Amino acid sequence: MQQQEVNERLDEFEEGMKDRYLIFMLDNHYYGIEIKYVIEIISLLPITCVPHQQEYIRGIINLRGKIIPVIDARIRLGKEYKEYNERTCIIVVDISNFQVGVIVDYVSEVATIKESDLSSLPEIEVQDDKRFIKAVAKLSERLILLLDCEKFISSDKIDI
Amino acid sequence: MNELNKDPMFEIFIVEAKEILSSLEKVFIELKEGNIEFKSAVEEILRLFHTLKGSSAMMGYQDISELCHRVEDIFVKLKSSTAPNFNTNRFVLNMLKIIDFINSQISCIENGFSVPSCKDIESVLKELEVTLQNTKQNAVEQKYSIVMQFEDGWEMENLRAFLIVQKLKEYVNVLEYFPSNIEVDSSTADIIKKEGFKVKIETSLGDEDVLNLFSDFAWIKDIKIKKEMEDTKESYKERQEKEESSFTKNMQPSTRRLINVNVEKVDRLVDLLGEMVVTFSMLTQHPDMQEIKSEGLKVITLQMSKLIRDLQEVAMSMRMVPLSSTFQKLKRIVVEMSTKLNKQIEVQISGEETELDKVLIEYLTDPLIHIVRNAVDHGIEEKEERLKKGKSPHGTIFIGAKNSGSDVLITIEDDGRGLDREKIIKKALEKGLILEDSSLDDQLVYDLIFQTGFSTKEEATEYSGRGVGLDIVRNNIQKIGGRVFVDSQKDKGTKFTIRVPLTLAIIDGMLVKVDKQIFAVPLSSIIETFKIEKKEVVTEGCYQFIYKRGACYKVVDLKKIFWGRETLKDDREFYLGIMVSNGNKMAVLLVDQMVSQQQVVIKSLPQIVGKVPEISGCTLLGDGGIAFILDIDSLVERW
């Protein structure tokens, strides 16, 4: 889906952010993030690598004058790193005024997922890091793993 | 009550009340130290309480207003005395209690809590009032005749005159006034307009005080006060002329030279200016701009650049606040503690006009308070002990501040008993902080007091000794990019030195390249830069050194620190070395090349990014890239 179209859809979200998710892909698996966290979607920007970080934290980018950290969704979920290409996007999310960019293979669409579409985790075999997955949904024959955005974004380290 | 919070009048009241209380505190401390004349102190105190009384009454806080009134009563009785004949120490302490109380009432009002009743402070007030009953007053009653001219356009001059008379009656004996039937006859307004309003009074108040009685009335344009002296005829006329000339004053209210600005607005301004610096930089470095070879354009660009720098300086300076109020706080703590502990301690302050970023001051206040408490509690000995040692019976604490390069140096020094080296070593051995008494450097021993849980005082007192203080002090100071050192000499004293950067937001930096990454080295830490040949570097184990002018310096290989690769393994003829200092030690940084020198707006690394000890922040470059700002302190100390 074109980045433009997705951004347009994001503008519509005043009408009801509830139950609306941004769907993106890693390999051929579908994932969803609640739209209320998403600020924008951008194509890949030059990433300045910060030394001595955990592998999933790729570094920082300059987003119109603001310095934002970016994390690799694949690595965060326990998958292997894949080289970025022209389809790779960064989903910028905002949680309590902290902004983080999430690098994904491909952004698919904005979809409405109701309670009735959800099923609980144990039923499905999932190889990803289960910590970050809130629930699973079935949407038009596809299986979509819904992420717990706050856990996904936050740092693993405990403050000393 | 909460709707009032949005009322600007409310905010102004709170701010002004706090300022008045702060000024009052200062006066009382100066009074105790004997630094100001009793008479002028009383005048100032009266003026301040009077203002507070008025504004709190206006805002509807009758409790506070009445409290001020009672205090005013106490001081009015002291007006004609040139010196108190009661125990000033106790008096001042009590007054400070009252000021604290009013301060807490103001805080409660500010935060919407219920205000404590003045009954709580009743006992203190009573004590003060009793103290004064025993004072003798040298009351000399004098007669004054006063003529006032009112401003045009205020109208109802007769009623205004009536208000003045009412007020005068509270303070002095009003003998007569003309026109006299002002409250009933409105035609008297015309008489006042033409000839002014005349009053004759009798009072023991001094000249200045009589004049001040009229300061509340904004409509008085002009006022002439004549003292009627029963004196020898020869000097009478001279006296009269002198008094007249000194008393005629223009009744314009003095305008304050300060305004209060919301800190967030200033922060926003600084941020925007920072972005302007970057954007302008992007403009001038744009390839299309580089192609235009116009001299005129270059001149304009330079002018613009200078304007932006100047703007930045002004914005930064708005956040700067002098240390004087912080030092006043410290002084007060010494005054209070020394009275309670029965020690005689004098405080000497220097450099309080030195300015520091407001936020930094907020972080520094608690650490400074802690150090001062230590000095009073542990440092300064009691009178007998001092005399035995041949010292003066009163101890001194020196609090000073001065600019040093791009830092501010704050020192707290006492002439007390100094740090006990043996005791510290013993305690450190107990806690396992050091392995054996291996003839440690004095400096290292004293540094141990900053470790967690360290305190050589056997029992905790109300003020200190729980051993949780100095490590937090060091942490807090390091948080704002500062450092704290301590030096001491047995029986001579102890000196704490705190070094903090002037401001957090902008520094002059030298940009260097290591591999493909650009780093900014704070210019203030650079001593010199030079070329290094491979053979000059001496390797010993995992350390590398270089000799320069006979001295040996550690080589810090940035490529190795960040990416684990050795710069020296690159096949090059020359390498680039930058000698840096953190104020304590020096080292030589190894980089690939120098890029440029420019002002750098410091941005902090985002929270989610794990802390990298050698990097203190980052900055945006003109081409949109990001450079890391090096933490020279950690580089020099750790590597």
Number of H- or I-type helical stretches of chain A: 3
Strand content of chain A: 35-45%
Give the largest interface. Answer: A-B, 24 and 22 residues
Radius of gyration of chain A: 15 Å
Helix content of chain B: 40-55%
Characterization of this structure:
- The complex is a heterodimer of chains A (160) and B (639).
- Helices cover 11% and strands 43% of the residues of chain A.
- With 160 residues, chain A is mainly β.
- Chain B is α+β, with helices and mostly antiparallel strands and 639 residues long.
- Chain B has 20 helices and 23 strands.
- In chain B, β17 and β18 form a beta hairpin.
- Classes of the chains: A mainly beta (160), B alpha+beta (639).
Write the layout of secondary structure elements.
The complex is a heterodimer of chains A (160) and B (639).
Chain A: H1 3-11, E1 20-26, E2 29-34, E3 38-43, E4 57-63, E5 66-72, H2 73-76, E6 89-95, E7 98-104, E8 106-112, E9 118-119, E10 133-139, E11 142-147, H3 149-153
Parallel strand pairs in A: 2-11, 5-7
Antiparallel strand pairs in A: 1-2, 1-8, 3-6, 4-5, 6-7, 9-10, 10-11
Chain B: H1 8-33, H2 38-58, H3 62-78, H4 88-111, H5 122-133, E1 142-150, H6 157-171, E2 173-178, H7 188-195, E3 197-203, H8 207-212, E4 220-228, H9 233-247, E5 249-250, H10 263-285, H11 287-291, H12 295-318, E6 320-322, H13 324-341, E7 345-350, E8 355-357, H14 358-379, H15 383-388, E9 395-404, E10 407-414, H16 421-430, H17 442-447, H18 470-479, E11 483-489, E12 493-501, E13 506-514, E14 517-522, E15 526-533, E16 537-540, E17 543-548, E18 551-557, H19 558-563, E19 574-581, E20 586-591, E21 593-601, E22 615-620, E23 626-630, H20 632-638
Parallel strand pairs in B: 7-9, 14-23, 18-20
Antiparallel strand pairs in B: 1-3, 1-4, 2-3, 4-5, 6-8, 9-10, 10-12, 11-12, 13-14, 13-21, 15-19, 16-17, 17-18, 19-20, 22-23
